[in-house]
Amino acid sequence: MTEKLLLKKQKSLSSYLKNGGYEALKKALSSGQKVVLEEISKSKLRGRGGAAFWASLKWETVAAQMTSPKYVICNSDEGEPATFKDRYLWENNPYQVIEGITIAGYTVGAKKGFIYIRGEYRDIALRIEKMLAELRKKGYLGENILGSEFSFDIEVVMGSGAYVCGESSAILNSIEGKRGEPRIKPPRTSVVGLFGKPTLVNNVETLSNVPLIVKNGGEWYTSLGVGNSTGPKLFSVSGFVKKPGVYEFELGKITLGELIEAAGGVEGEFKGAMIGGGAAGFIVNEEFLDMPMDFDSAWDRGISLGTGDVIVLNKSVNLWKMLHNIAWFFEHESCGKCMPCRYGTYHARKIMEKILAGNGTKEDIKKLNRIARTVKIASICGLGKSSMDAYLSAMKHFREELMEVIL
Amino acid sequence: MKITINGQEYNVEGRKSILQVCQEVGIYIPALCYYENEKPTGSCGLCIVSLKNPRGKKTYVRACATPVRDGMVIETSTPEIEDARKTILEMILAEHPPECMTCEANGECILQELAYRYGISKPSFTAEIKGFVKDDNPFFIRDNAKCIKCWKCIIACRDVKLKKVLGVKGRGHNVEIIAGTDEPLIDAGCAFCGACIDACPTGALFEKSRVGKGRVWEMRKITTVCPYCGVGCMLDFYVNDRKIVYVRGSKEGINKGDDCIKGRFGWEFVHSKERLTKPLIKINGKFREVSWDEALDYIAKRFKEIKDKYGADSIGGFSSAKCTNEENYLFQKFMRTVIGTNNVDHCARLCHSSTVTGLIKTLGSGAMTNSIDDLEKADVFLVIGSNTTEAHPVIATRIKRAVMKGAKLIVVDPRKIGLARFATMYLRPKPGTDVALINAFINVILDLDLVDWDFVKSRTEGFEKLKKVVEKYTPEYAEKITGVNAHDIVKAAIMYGKAKRAAIIYAMGMTQHISGTANVATLANLALITGNVGKEGSGVNPLRGQNNVQGACDLGALPNLLPGYKKVIDLSAHEHFMHHWGVDVPYKPGLTIVEMINAAYDGKLKALYIMGENPVLSDPDQTHVIEALNRIEFLVVQDIFLTETAQYADVVLPAASFAEKDGTFTNTERRVQLLRKIVEPPGEAKPDWWIITELARKMGHEWNYTCPEDIFNEIRKVVVQYAGMTYERLRHGGLQWPCPDEKHPGTPILHQKIFPRYNGLARFVPYEYIPPAETPDEEFPYIMITGRMYEHFHTGTMTRRVDGLNHIAPEPCVEISTEDAKKIGVNEGDYVYIESRRGKIKARVKIADIEQGCVFLPFHFAEGPANRLTSGENLDPEAKIPEFKVSAVKIWRCET
What ipTM goes with this model? Predict the structure, then answer.
């Protein structure tokens, strides 16, 4: 694939319009909600925020709700370490995201959208505010958009540094001004969401795909990617590579090894990689280098593509140190609402500290395994559930190395 | 639907969670954070179960939060699940103090029970036991180390009671439950309802009063009626070693486990050292302890002498809304048949006598038309002249919960009361202008034709008269009188008029005016014209102030009405009572409370028998009352303490408190409930029914009542509304009158088919607006409103003897608007003098959101008696209720 569909540099509205920007919205407004829903469904678009949930299922559920008002939230919390694709989109191709939000609002019947952006992206948030003002002035937002019956506006809400607020229900609490902690499901956010109303929560990258689908059709979109992993995907590649950055490829058209090569290759001697969503990812070994980078191939191998980021590890990496760092991250970011995560992340970090100090025993490994099983099945939200994935996958793929220091 | 749990199929109906279903069919699932009937938080994670989807994939969900669906295949106790549960428990226990031996929760701690069940004596995880004990209030301890942060207290405070005081601080492993912005509970606005204590699964929250006083299995739990307001909450008293140890709201009552600061923590007075324990006779200005025989002989002798010399009508009696139905019945029977006068009244005169007159005129019956449970069904509430959150907190919570579920709330009050925070509309009229406001509501409803014509045509009379009177009360006209914006009047009228079910709730803000009867009748007109009487979630609902004021009225402790609201002037009633009592009742209606005080002042009333009332603080114009009591020849006061009034008595009789006797109370919704004896009376104190019976016997009447049930069985014969009630039936949650026979289920909603008037129709009784008797002038520029506050009750006889309540509310505070405080030159906390035409008192300033030109003063404090300032002359012409709500006063800064 030569032409990039997401990684475009069109920072101004005029450049975006020149390249066909907002044609999708016009098309959506003239063809109606039902057609857009059909195209999204045909496209097999899956969420880019980590869970790879079918976008059309969320969209259809929200659209089908009879209660009003409804809301659209663009989740731009991007809290995972080593994930920075959304930031790239906002910095280089922001209008495509905003157009996506607007189309989503139109399609599900919302009049109000929110961009929830992490507090660390403060300068981006300020820039977005300016863009929104400009779009309002030009009739792309506000009352009767482009002369249609459709009215829609977007508000920017900034997070305050809590990782958990990127979770699709904690984000609602945060916008409502409440403590950032997840809500228990059911009910689903698409039925009872923001302020108790049906709410569509989509990731920045997911929404940036929407104008492509609407403009070119769902069928065209399925020609990109493989099987049920369709469309382009952004990969944040970091760690021990020569050219870290954001890379766009069609899903499944490139292997892990090829992706690392595209990023300039390993710096030092390859040891493994962490894939799938920063700290919430999986630590894998060289056996995965031939794995195609798409959702299903990852699942087939017992891991998840997540947000599509890759941290490359070389032989200098001490895995226990890394695991401890990850455990510390989760302990720090646990909201404390549910006990498995509140206590589990705390004890995991403490035990790893003991191991790092050279005092780890087989009993400690048993305890870590118990914690890992417990948080996986008993935590409320994805934060807790995935907090021990790194440990479990490392144990699977680097067991010998890890057990070396255990007494 | 069919579901499979652990391999066995079950048929389930309705929307239930997996946990509920498992509890129903007897499958154990552990849970620490589960709060019945509330939205689950899923904090503990112990209730996880596994589901198998059709493709055979296993998922884990929380049983508390997951509704059952047809075809679900559920496993509740696989090795993975049990391992996770044990891991969670071990991690909790790792930092939980192992203090079960001395912990107050021992025996009722869920964590302890789970540790036992899972056999965890030494958790395999280790952690530092952190935390500190917060002792920041008089009533309960917060032991942070024992807190497992399960969020249950927060659900109780935020979602159930809508107090929103408790919250969370910190994140992850450092979370901590805090009050407000991590401040002492009192500063955070805690209402001390204790819902958090009930919710706590461990020993993190516990009453101070129970420390070291016994284990839960040593306690005797006795469920009885709360001694305070008219809501009539049932309370569970935990008693050990013949003393009350702690109290909790009972789930059996209409309060469904709820209660307030007074019900839960206001019982200390029962064991007060100041309780009266022996009869006292005053000789040469000093009280001397005497035997019961001597005291009763003396009273009998003096009553006989005075009756012989001046006639029976020279004697009067104050019955009590704090005493049981049985005692009120006996007291009025004593006055009418033993003394031979209708001079019997009680404090309903001062609170809801205008309700009785106003509602009997219009609806035919002077009581709350609907029920407390029923209130939640209303679409619109009109709360007018009721500071519900402070005076009837448990009902206020019900209203708030209904509002959270979507009901609309109109609050009308010169003060921005607690409920106003939840209100859809808040209207602020000038005190005493309510008739104009409500007439304007009716005017708008007529104008926009929001009238329920079917109802008006088939069930009412007098519509034309109403129409004529309200014609001139246009919103603009009413705005001039009330100060409420005409647009708001229209909006509120439409909100009420368009509602499917609208409930009016009112209290003393309506009744304590010279236009009290007019206010009440006008509210009834409003309800009638929109068809909001006789159906669920509607009605005209006076909230009664005392726990048995309804019963005292029902049983005829009124000068013009006999038991069952039979009129003294109705000759056929006399036949009825002659038949049952064997003695005729005098024909002349007696004097009301205020009239008796005036007669005493004028030297016409020579003797007064006061049972459980404290007119020196509760009646208007204190100076006048005291002088009247001084002038009385013979004063008998029967009470639990030597009250401000008892000090003027010639004989003082020590009575048993609510906690020391059996009987029945009738709450605001006409529900007759059983009062149960909890502890023995102190010293020689006796129940009021015993005292009255003995006195009647000393005066030559062969009364043979041996227990309250004897008296109740006589009441059943005399009062048709109570005929179907027996103590046995009342044991199961009480019955609402009318209950004419033993098969009758009681009457939750009055007037469903006919109104109890001669023709079965309700009557519109319109009134014109008349201004209050006292209007501010140059000398007395402020209007003073009196009323209640949350922490204290009535004349403080009980609550002022509870240390904790005095700690929170130690002295009288006058509420003043910011603007007026500036004008007077005072700040919050300064002292001021308040003076009316009748007297002067001192109080501390509290800046409040109140109509400019108005101040509010609670009447509970002997050291700053609000009723020294009120007038006993400005009475409602029909109900004779004094205008407590409007007194012209002046205020100035007190320098010392």
Answer: 0.94
